[in-house]
Amino acid sequence: MVPCRLYTQKSMIIAQISDTHIDPDSPNAAERVRDLQRCVDDINRLDPAPDVVIHTGDLVHNGNAAKYQVAARILGALKRPLHVAAGNRDDRAAIRSIFAAGRDLLPGTPFVQYSVDAYPVRLIALDTLSDISNMGEFCDIRADSLRAALAEGGARPTAVFMHHPPFEVAESKYRWQFDSQEGIDRMRRALEGQSHVMRAFCGHAHRIAVGKIAGVPVSSTPSVAIDLRLGDFPDGVQSAPLYQIHRLDARGGFTSELRAAL
Q1: DSSP 200
Q2: What is the pTM of this model?
Q3: What CATH superfamily is the domain 13-260?
């Protein structure tokens, strides 16, 4: 993977991909590989280039070593640094060992929760995996870790990224995508009063959805895997994998653009 650079100017571009679900055993295996490859190629052509690429989970479907080898080969062609949040279909240990992380916020635990301080906006990856379902969870250990990380960062602008959306996705069959409201409440309490947290980015819903938690704008992005994508999209992009570009604007907020990898 490409090493991070240290930045001083207050500008930033994040490319977000999610829910690639690479699975050589799937009937749609070849299509999903092509979908991810098209996104990587498109990101590499962007001008200006993004400062960083985030993947908000479910890199592979029910992860094993062979599946991660395929995903890592494709993602290894990215010309910009990549950071990954674990999804419910991922293997935490594989994510931790294969993909670049930042400073581990919960060493000695299985949780993939870390911070990256090399950009104008600090990135914090959250672990929202449940041990009992494919839905989300956020326990006291993870909430306390988030609270401590935010406190130690002072007023530095921060964005968090995770797999499960911590808000109601009204269009979804699963309107609330956590095991219970308690997990969302723990995250909300950790974020309350943290005015330097600018945005949160999610996957899992396989569609565009927006909401807020503790006043922080949150968005989910469509699945890169076209066969799993949900929602309605404009004519001309139904057959293209989609991802999002998030730009830090002059007013100090992020604006988001849906991009088709044509």
Answers
A1: E
A2: 0.94
A3: Metallo-dependent phosphatases (3.60.21.10)
